[in-house]
Automatic annotation (TrEMBL):
Residues 1-21 are annotated as: Disordered. PROSITE patterns: FE2OG_OXY. This is Fe2OG dioxygenase domain-containing protein. It comes from Leucocoprinus birnbaumii. GO terms for molecular function: metal ion binding; oxidoreductase activity.
Length: 351
């Protein structure tokens, strides 16, 4: 598919303007950017990053690489490299189609291939092996050139020492931060109807920061503060950044975990397959996800508690609890929202 040729539909979020990492080399530049990031993360819950260091050609190459685990690997080999989410609470390897329940007996039609930033942790399908140096370079770029600068801005936004969150996200520290490639396959009319055109239910990501490489098939929506789902607009070679549960917990609710979902694209885009490239960041496994009380900002605005501080899960406990339950557990319906308890914390799913 020729990425970049499709146009998104007209219903797009217009309020968030992309910004540049460029000026962030000086303390003044970072202070300015921190204001923008804080504004985005405490209101809409996402922002774009442009000028992040990858050229359009490098980004295109990553999407070509992203397609390989889906298009060039046989079903049998995919099975051999399937992840064991329910048992290990870890997404490494394939998340094959039909694994999650969406709604009314309908299961998902999307595949992931998840690769830890330490690409040697597991084996990979034969055609993926020669691509591992490139995938590792991609992980490192995301971690050091995108994630760490964002984490510095988020620390400044809480008036904490700049390296506070960076120190929780060591590239070589034990933890799960990983690259995800993802492919959505077409669904039947019946499946579309029974799920109200929802491909991936409204959810929050469980890590700290998600980096999504913007791609042209519109389908991602964010639940805006006014309670309406809004399309996320495609911007060529931009990154869409959102916070997840772990960042919400660490920031005492100040930075909101963004509620987002994936729905059937608008009619003019329904014949395209949708390919995704992501970097899912988590803090190091041993970090306790309790609010950073030392933040002067939190001392002023107060903390929204999800659990008592001494009961706060570690990153490892939280990611394992959420991963093993996701799409497999019995959810309790409460109107439009479905709920479950993970590690004593209420988790919501939205239609
Ligand atoms: O495909 C997308 O745009 C979003 C996927 C997503 O939300 C996820 O994998 O957590
Ligand atoms: Fe997500």
């Amino acid at each position: 598919m020729a990425l970049g040729e499709q146009r998104p539909p007209s219903t797009t979020i217009q309020s968030t303007s992309p910004f540049y990492f460029g000026p962030a080399t000086t303390p003044e530049g970072r202070a300015e950017l921190a204001k923008l990031v804080t504004e985005a993360m405490t209101s809409q819950g996402f922002f774009y990053v442009v000028n992040h260091g990858y050229s359009p050609e490098q980004t295109k190459r990553i999407f070509d690489v992203a397609n390989v685990p889906f298009e060039q690997v046989s079903d049998a080999e995919k099975q051999a490299y399937a992840g064991t989410m329910k048992v290990t609470g870890s997404y490494q390897g394939y998340k094959l189609r039909q694994y999650w329940h969406i709604d009314n007996g309908v299961h998902d039609q999307l595949e992931h291939y998840n690769i830890n930033r330490d690409v040697t942790k597991r084996g990979h399908p034969e055609v993926v092996r020669p691509l591992l140096p490139e995938i590792e370079a991609f992980a490192k770029h995301n971690h050091l050139n995108v994630l760490h600068p964002i984490l510095r801005l988020l620390a400044i936004g809480l008036e904490l020492p700049e390296e506070t969150f960076v120190n929780f996200h060591g590239y070589d520290a034990p933890g799960e931060t990983y690259v995800r490639f993802m492919k959505y396959y077409p669904r039947t009319k019946d499946e579309e109807e029974k799920t109200g055109q929802v491909w991936l239910k409204g959810h929050t990501d469980f890590g700290t920061i998600t980096i999504l490489y913007s791609q042209p098939v519109a389908a991602l929506q964010i639940l805006a503060p006014d309670g309406k789902w809004k399309w996320v607009k495609h911007i060529d070679n931009a990154l869409v950044i959102n916070a997840g549960d772990a960042m919400e917990f660490l920031s005492g609710g100040y930075y909101r975990a963004t509620i987002h979902r994936v729905v059937q694209p608008p009619p003019d885009q329904q014949t395209y397959t949708r390919l995704g490239a992501f970097y899912f960041a988590m803090s190091d496994d041993d970090i306790k996800l309790a609010p950073l009380m030392q933040s002067p900002v939190l001392q002023r605005v107060g903390i929204k508690r999800r659990f008592e501080d001494d009961k706060a899960p570690t990153m490892e406990e939280w990611r394992k609890g959420r991963t093993s339950a996701y799409g497999q557990s019995e959810l309790t319906k409460k109107g439009q929202v479905e709920e479950e308890m993970i590690n004593g914390v209420l988790v919501k799913h939205y239609n």
